[in-house]
Specification:
Number of helices: 6
Helix content: over 70%
Number of strands: 0
Order of helices and strands: HHHHHH
Shape: globular
Radius of gyration: 16 Å
Strand content: under 5%
Length: 141
């Protein structure tokens, strides 16, 4: 497998995990926290996509990008300490925000394949959050 195929395989596997976890609260509302926890870990990890490029080059460091990456990281971790539905709403906002900031600051240095994959994954993750939150129309856990 080529590096692109490997990246696609693991990325789509991760997206599938979001959808499996988004379906759990449709079985039992109390399971919605599993998606929140997984999502928080992934968003905190993705914050490194801004932090590393922001601090790598000593001549072109961008403190705004590094600060934003840390804010996203801390916000993702904060969702562990709030109701699952509220955490999911905040995380659902965090993914497109991170996607947008990454494009603004580093998009020119990214390949078209990577940008397209990130778009697919970001909006797929948002859809999974919407699916899980829709389960709450049946009540609250």
């Amino acid at each position: 497998m080529s590096p692109s195929q490997i990246m696609l395989f693991w990325s789509l596997g991760g997206l599938a995990t979001f959808f499996v976890l988004a379906l759990l609260p449709w079985v039992h509302l109390g399971l919605i926290g599993y998606l929140r926890d997984f999502s928080a870990l992934i968003l905190a990890f993705l914050a490194g996509t801004l932090w590393l490029p922001a601090v790598r080059d000593a001549d072109n460091r961008d403190p705004k990008a590094a600060n934003l990456a840390m804010a996203v990281f801390l916000a993702a971790w904060a969702t562990f300490f709030m109701p699952a539905w509220l955490g999911l709403v905040l995380l659902m906002i965090g993914y497109p925000a991170l996607w947008w900031f990454e494009r603004q600051w580093f998009g020119a240095a990214q390949s078209l394949d990577y940008r397209n994959l990130r778009s697919l994954l970001t909006w797929g993750v948002v859809a999974a959050h919407v699916l899980a939150l829709a389960s709450l129309s049946r009540g609250t856990p």
